[in-house]
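Recall the central idea of this unit: under ordinary conditions, the amino acid sequence of a chain determines the structure it adopts. In this exercise we apply that idea directly, starting from the sequence alone.
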Amino acid sequence: MQAIEGILLEPVGCLAEFPSGQFHEIAVRLFGRKGKASASGSRSYWHLLNLMGEDSSSSLVKDLEIEAVKAASIYEDTVPALTELKAMGVHLSIASSLSDVAITRFLEKHSLGEFFAGVWNRDNAGGIKAVPLVCALHGASLQPENVMFLTDTVEGIKVARSAGVQPVLMMNDPDEARRLAMHNPAGGVVSLHEIPDFIRLIAAQNKRGRPSGA
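Accordingly, the structure predicted from this sequence is:
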């Protein structure tokens, strides 16, 4: 794995625990999805993106996303991990398929704006899934192989690969993590606290692998 210079972050499931109800309601009311909501907000969110395509202009979508943001609980290790990563000089960008207003509310609610050099969402990126990731890469002039994308769903792993970045698994659920490991992510962590050491380990491995005098 190449040395990591930047991290792209989707708040849903990586920085905070989001409820699934609002994402499921959008899927039901706009796209006719049936059945019960998933227990996982991340799975409901990524399933919604698969249904949504580019049709995300409805005010209902933004209103329910804002409700989800209001109900989201930030992980206790988010701020300490982001603080350490920023001090290390790692580029941090938000790359999300949420709307601009939802992302802005999320960052303001948890006072996270100072950590991110770039904030990309479906509105300013002009698309969802891989589109915000690609915009984040171009905006920061980063090479994809030197960037990781944290995700806790198989859809997120696929999106990371389509953008050329390294998918790193957030193992929020042990049983789900075992299943997702079969999709060969570039690595996995159980806590954001592990990310700085993960990046240091990769840097050390790359340094040891260089020819003498390089």
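Residues 194-208 form the longest helix (15 residues).
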